[in-house]
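Lab notebook, bench 4. Still working through the backlog of constructs that have no structural model yet. Next entry is a single chain of 67 residues. Request: give me the structure tokens for it.
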Amino acid sequence: MCCQAGVSKLKEAREVVDSLKKKAAQQSQILAEKQREADESMAEITSTIQVNLSLITLFTDIIRQHH
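Model written out:
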């Protein structure tokens, strides 16, 4: 009896662990996707900032030439 209950508990624990592993794998994939999206957004923001800084420099140079 006691051994049977122990085996049953081990099987239950294995099922819980397997379920948690699957859930963790799914969440890991979602995290990777969100990280890619964040990286793309950061690259776009960086590019926009660089363009804006170039425009500011250009306009500053033009203003200095006319004064």
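Notes after review: Helices lie at 2-66. The chain has a mean pLDDT of 95. Flag for follow-up if needed.
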